[in-house]
Amino acid sequence: MLKKTDLGKAGEKFACQYLEELGHSVLFSNFRNRFGELDIISLNEEVLYCTEVKTWSSQKHFHPLYCFNETKRNRMRKVYRYLVCKYPALSHLTVSFSLAHINEKREVSFYSHLF
């Protein structure tokens, strides 16, 4: 059985591959600053996707969408603002805060434009 950190890293790698199959260009993974982290930042058709990756068993009785509480949303927004300050060429793009949920069968559920 994988440790939680190894499972998370494997899930993020799998999510990057999934997004690339959808036509995304992955710009950054694990982009962090003092406010938090964006697991994957990708670009597809003038939309910048800031994606949280959750690798959870479907046996848990808690859907990953519930992880987007107000604190999490605010942290993701702060990291995004830092990103566009550091890379102003990205500031004109529409932003989509998204979730990639990967279950134990390596099935991906992708939820875009959550907030």
From TrEMBL:
GO MF annotation list:
nucleic acid binding
Q: Which Pfam families match?
A: UPF0102
Which SUPFAM superfamilies does the entry mention?
Restriction endonuclease-like (SSF52980)
The protein's matches in PANTHER family, at most eight in alphabetical order, are given as: UPF0102 PROTEIN YRAN
The UniProt entry's sequence similarity note says: Belongs to the UPF0102 family.
From the Swiss-Prot or TrEMBL record, give the protein name: UPF0102 protein EHS15_14200
Upper classification of the source organism reads: Bacteria, Pseudomonadati, Spirochaetota, Spirochaetia, Leptospirales
